[in-house]
Hints:
Blueprint: H1 3-39, H2 42-45, H3 47-65, H4 69-92
Amino acid sequence: MRPGILALLVLVSTSAAGCGIKSTAHLVAADRAVQRAEERGAAENALYEYTLAVRYLDKAREESAHARYGDAISLAREAEGYADKAVIVMQEKGLGTPTEAEAPAADVAPAPAPPAPPAPTAPAPTEAPTP
């Protein structure tokens, strides 16, 4: 085999593997976004956006399985966007509070309250001399 053809094959196979890794990262991000939306109750309270997120994610997985990585990435981005939108819709309705895992961590204990200032002391009464 000629060196030029071998180099071309190596280049093509390396770039194809890179696309698979990139699409997997997008699929994972989209899957996490859909899970967050589901945990907050989007399946009941933001049905349209949640359903689109799930369907786009399913299709992204299908495209990735058929090595259509570019399509998989685009679909995974759409899925993540709709999952995020489901959370926003729920927040606008006053629903879907953050889970404990998403709530800000309280790593540091609050500072103790400063001590109360000392009470003012009145001068001791002196007895007036008796005449």
